[in-house]
């Protein structure tokens, strides 16, 4: 599926953001900057009547609708297409003077090709091209008799012509599915004169309902059959142009004109008095009904509820999508690891906790990941790397260079150390394979409450969710996404504490090894960024990834964070990338926005980032490569940086490691062997 922007009647494609946001909803992952958008009030207009029925699917939130239906998944833009054939269209925002949404017919512009004028308004500055994407995918849909699902968006703006006003009914929700339509005509028109007196050719499209029998839900109450016609009741004439020889339908009340835009007589009416700013479509064109001729059945507008077949684990990508609540028809995203819940809170629940994925599947995925990636590491020449000798692990550290303007503070500002366990380290009793099974169980039974949270614009119709599910434990960690802290370390389940213990060992070992190696090899490091002592962690964020999930580029640069951030990866392999931020200004050497360090993260790997300035000048991202992955990341939240004394005290209490866990601390594989 692909989506394109600038669709017909679509002004809602600018995306919203949180200024302070670090992590973004990464399903879309386009990296575009997003402006904060105020939630729009859904103030009901007392002038509009209620509709006869209810939409078959609706949502307050655009992303929820895109996530829950198949024919329209355009988080941005207006038209959805598959293989260059339109499958769905959003009618939203401003309309042109001849746009119509009737009981069975929609007329709108093909859209796209407008420019943004100096006053921010969308204007046309040239004739529309047949190469325009919208024209191509809509023409293909017409040729192939493709059903096109229509969604109408509600604008709360009172003035002007908006798509929802064409419906002439009160819409209770922001995004509303109308029905299946098909395209009967695409033609060129001269657009009504613009503010500067110019007028250009653009394409218009007419769609007709496939189902002509049922009363459309969007008709105003009391007008049950207005605009509903049968096949053969009306007929629109076609006339051949004497000048160019092409045939055009007689579509205007003001008489026939040639609709072939290359013709010398294009859009010339027999009477010179016709004002193209005031012309209207005629009755025959509006009321003619055509039989939809296609062999195939139309799909239901609301897809069937998912079923967890015996050969599935429940974290394949099909299980991450939204559902349509069978009771109230609201699009409901998968917010919880455990399953779905009606977003209108009608009480409908579909519980489907993912099943445990056996190690054999993870091992196969890891082998496949290496087949695809010929090189294990991709490293820019500016990065120094070194191997360390640690029993039970292969360990590599990468030193990230300082920015040119700060070199006097040290040549390197941070290190990324990867601990890769050997097979015996992973497979021994109580090793990493067992820990993976324990984490799966804890998330399956809900002792770790993984959920997806709004990544930006919470509560607005532009709200997007994080791609992954998360749960915070220990001290509160506030980043762009507000993840509720579910457990302090006293009540956190065992696998969380076991991971904390391993990450503490990994963090301390990485700091010691990188400091020692830098001293031995005379690498000059910025000690204000990467001190040579380790501070114990007091927080753990668990992320759960389904298939096709990722965390897009972000940093861990919150001011209250300590210098070390350590992640334990369990399950499917993934790829971790680092890139320099624009402000790092490395010139050509470490080109901004280009990946400069990339490596596969395998099941059981520990990745330790050490150095606060890593997050000032670099971003990192992780893309999961299989059906189930967990990333357990520990940080130190500096309580002295929390201004509110109550929150500060809570962070200290929640992040304290209970004494019985301190005793069980992991001390590396040689100690494990010693302890039996
Ligand atoms: O999934 C991962 O390994 C990355 C986690 C991460 O980048 C983070 O929590 O900041």
From TrEMBL:
Protein name: Uncharacterized protein
Species assigned in the record: Xylaria curta
């Amino acid at each position: 599926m692909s989506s394109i922007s600038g669709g017909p009647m679509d002004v809602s494609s600018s995306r919203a953001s949180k200024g302070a946001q670090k992590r973004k909803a990464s399903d879309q992952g386009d990296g575009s900057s997003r402006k904060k958008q105020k939630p729009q009030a859904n103030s009901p207009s007392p002038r509009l009547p209620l509709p006869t029925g209810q939409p078959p699917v609706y949502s307050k939130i655009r992303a929820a609708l895109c996530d829950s239906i198949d024919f329209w998944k355009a988080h941005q833009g207006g038209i959805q297409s598959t293989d260059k054939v339109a499958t769905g269209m959003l009618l939203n925002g401003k309309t042109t003077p001849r746009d119509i949404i009737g009981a069975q017919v929609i007329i709108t512009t093909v859209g796209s090709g407008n420019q943004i004028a100096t006053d921010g308004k969308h204007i046309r500055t040239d004739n529309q091209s047949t190469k325009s994407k919208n024209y191509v995918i809509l023409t293909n849909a017409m040729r192939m008799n493709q059903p096109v699902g229509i969604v109408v968006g509600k604008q709360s703006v009172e003035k002007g012509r908006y798509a929802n006003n064409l419906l002439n009914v009160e819409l209770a929700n922001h995004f509303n599915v109308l029905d299946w339509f098909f395209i009967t005509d695409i033609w060129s028109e001269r657009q009504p004169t613009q503010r500067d007196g110019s007028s250009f050719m653009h394409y218009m499209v007419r769609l007709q309902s496939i189902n002509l029998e049922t009363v459309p839900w969007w008709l105003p109450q009391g007008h049950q059959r207005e605009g509903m016609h049968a096949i053969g009741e009306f007929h629109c004439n076609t006339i051949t142009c004497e000048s160019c020889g092409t045939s055009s339908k007689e579509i205007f009340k003001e008489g026939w004109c040639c609709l072939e835009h290359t013709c010398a007589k294009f859009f010339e009416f027999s009477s010179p008095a016709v004002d193209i700013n005031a012309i209207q479509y005629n009755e025959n064109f509006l009321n003619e009904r055509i039989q939809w001729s296609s062999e195939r059945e139309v799909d239901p507008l609301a897809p069937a509820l998912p079923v967890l077949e015996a050969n599935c684990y429940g974290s394949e990508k099909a299980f991450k999508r939204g559902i349509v609540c069978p009771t109230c028809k609201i699009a409901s995203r998968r917010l919880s690891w455990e399953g779905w819940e009606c977003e209108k809170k009608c009480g409908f629940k579909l519980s489907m906790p993912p099943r445990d994925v056996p190690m054999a599947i993870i091992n196969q995925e890891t082998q496949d990941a290496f087949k695809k990636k010929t090189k294990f590491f991709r490293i820019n020449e500016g990065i120094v790397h070194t191997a360390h000798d640690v029993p039970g692990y292969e360990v590599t550290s990468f030193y990230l260079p300082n920015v040119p303007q700060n070199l006097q503070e040290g040549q390197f500002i941070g290190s990324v150390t990867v601990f890769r366990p050997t097979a015996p380290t992973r497979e021994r009793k109580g090793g990493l394979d067992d820990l993976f099974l324990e984490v799966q169980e804890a998330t399956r039974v809900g002792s770790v409450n993984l959920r997806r949270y709004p990544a930006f614009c919470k509560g607005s119709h532009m709200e997007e969710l994080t791609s992954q599910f998360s749960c915070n434990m220990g001290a509160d960690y506030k980043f762009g996404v507000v993840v509720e802290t579910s457990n302090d370390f006293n009540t956190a389940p065992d696998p969380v504490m076991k991971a904390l213990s391993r990450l503490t060992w990994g963090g301390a070992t990485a700091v010691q090894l990188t400091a020692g190696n830098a001293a031995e090899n005379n690498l000059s490091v910025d000690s204000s960024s990467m001190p040579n002592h380790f501070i114990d962690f007091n927080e753990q964020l668990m992320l759960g990834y389904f298939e096709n999930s990722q965390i897009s580029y972000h940093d861990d640069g919150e001011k209250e964070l300590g210098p070390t951030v350590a992640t334990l990866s369990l399950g499917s392999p993934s790829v971790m990338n680092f890139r320099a931020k624009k402000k790092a200004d490395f010139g050509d050497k470490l080109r901004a926005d280009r990946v400069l360090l990339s490596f596969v993260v395998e099941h059981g790997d520990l990745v330790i980032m050490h150095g606060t300035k890593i997050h000032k000048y670099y971003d990192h991202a992780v893309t999961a490569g299989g059906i189930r992955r967990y990333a357990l990341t520990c940080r130190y939240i500096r309580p002295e940086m929390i201004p509110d004394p109550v929150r500060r005290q809570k962070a200290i209490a929640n992040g304290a490691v209970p004494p019985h866990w301190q005793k069980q601390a992991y001390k590396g594989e040689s100690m494990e062997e010693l302890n039996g």
